Amino acid sequence: MGDFNLLDEIYFTGRDKYKSIQSLLSKGLIMKIAAEIYTSNFEADPSDIIRRNLFQIIAEKFPGSLISHRSAFELAPFQDNIFVTSKYTDKYQLPGVTVNLLKGFGPITGDGYMFGAAFSQRERALLENMQISKGKPSKSLSREQIEEKLEMYLRTHGEEYLNQIRDKSRLIAHQLSMTNEFSKLDGVIGAMMGTKSIKKLKSDVGKARFNRIPFDINRIHLFEKLFFDLQSKMFKRVPDANDNLKSYKLFGFFESYFSNYIEGTKFQVEDAKQIVDSGLPMPSRVNDSHDVLGTYKIVSDKKALSVIPNNADDFIDLLKYRHKILLNARPEFSPGMFKERVNVAGNTVFVEPELVIGTLKKGFEYYNALQEPFARAAYMMFLIAETHPFNDGNGRIARIFMNSELTRDNQSKILIITSFRDDYILALKKLTNQHVSEVYIKMLEKAHNLSSRINGENFNQVYDFLKGINAFEEANSNTILIPEIKRDDNLKNLDIENKLEAELKNTSQLSVIKTKKKKGL
Known about the structure:
The protein has 22 helices and 13 strands. The chain is α/β, with parallel strands linked by helices.
């Protein structure tokens, strides 16, 4: 079969290959899928075959060309189009892909190669993407997209690295007669480093960098996704049955207890109660005791917790103020001060220190546009947790701000009980890693419904209720027991029969929900 290997997926014809191709065709071993392009794959869709072998096709069909403009960054078709600088301008239609040929210079020193096809090196591609595109789809990335790339280079590698990109771009611009394109690129880079006018910039991330309040663009995209998902929903109002000081403070005790427990500060309930009642730490666990006391001080004060930020600056100030109270006895964690080193949890790297203020302020804009108190609470909790602005206490402060929104509207606060920890953590991870918000929203709705049933002034009765639903069990028990509860003077608003059971079963993603009848609660 000459030079042909039947293990290859595609074959090209030409004068020297005509007889071999005809022989394979006559034997039914290959079929034609485009002009002078054949395949031995009879099962796959021709458009899929073309996409898998696109670089090889470009190298074979358009020698001396290179993949350029936006395609040099994306290295894949955009809206079924790929852009290639060649010796002439034309369009070449393939199954599922249009090859747009643009007249220009061929490969130069420094351009890359993949599967035989050349593609523009980064600096050349940046210049190409400074060109105005009149056709659709655009051959160039948007100015905002280019600025996001440049900001990423600046953020991850520093100003010297961006200067090196500019210097190399200048040399290539002279070589390829792209001085106009370089002038635009130079203006953008200079503005990002504060040496040229902000008028050169079009993107929010670029302007934020100019103003020295840069933000994490990937997190902002995630916050935007959550915002739209929350904005599109209506949420049931869940009134707070803890409508007097004594019951509100009792809920605050358990709120402090569970919020610290799931973060690793574990006490027996009786010990935690003694700490809160006396206001004194356990001599053997002074720092841990102060964690419980600091949390309780914030969450038990309804008037103070009802305060919500009016603007981004208020938000930053309130965040620092509450964190200072929360970790007042932990000077090693810099209470009230944003982190100076990046923090990591498992495979998640949180927002870099220099991007914290900008990310919080930009994220606040979405919060401020939400109207539903539950939506604001859910958004605020994730905004803080995902940014992780402090060295420690991020989860606790995030839940505090969540419940601040609900308290402001006289709704039940949300308690994340120990046996619900896995649902809570995994829902957060799913939103962080997969940008799926539905599980997170349903998880909080479920916790909100359950929390509204935790009320009363009698410590023992509330404690017994929590024990009755396995609230104190470690998450690996994987069971929350939801009792049918009769109305009691000290435990109000506890009708959780068929309706609640159905809600919990429908919304639970991770827990095994069982019902258990209990009397006299």
